[in-house]
Amino acid sequence: MSELGTAALSGKASVTGASARPISDDLRKQVAASAAAYRDKPGALLSVLEETQRLDPNRHLSEDALRAIAEAMDEPLSRVYSVATFYSYYSLVPQGQHVIVVCRGTACHTRGSLGLLQETLAMLGAEDFREDEEASFTTADRKFTVRTVACFGQCALAPVVSLDGVILSRLTPSKLKAAIERVARGGKR
Ligand code: FES
Description:
single chain, 189 residues, alpha+beta, Glutaredoxin, 2 domains, 8 helices, globular, binds FE2/S2 (inorganic) cluster
């Protein structure tokens, strides 16, 4: 378990492992507003985590954000942390404006996900990407982040890639390249 996990579960005051960037007053207000809006709705915590990450300028959930969410939702920090680390969509470290997550599970691998990853990395100029679940690459202009995941649970649609949280299925390198070029121009995935 990471230090953050250990600290969060034991309820210690300080946690490490998530970005230490403080959130802005505006984002803190947004967290409170989201918590109020989603309270008592199914999946409330997931929605607040998602909205907070989307509104964060660095598209991530910092330690400060996790604490703000726990407080606003009256949830233990340990629960907020476990949900934020369970789903591959959430990131505790800063990301680019657009996030590409390439599935590298068996079904996707056998249907060409390595080619998708290599095409994406080449397109974005990533030279020494070390493939593991913790690895990520962010372009110098902070426009794109590339990560991998073990399985999205969408194996029947393999190979799949998530682009800004939207699952793109049965991809080929050329289809993925076109989708990345579209979002780079400000269009839809
Ligand atoms: S292996 Fe890619 S979705 Fe399951």
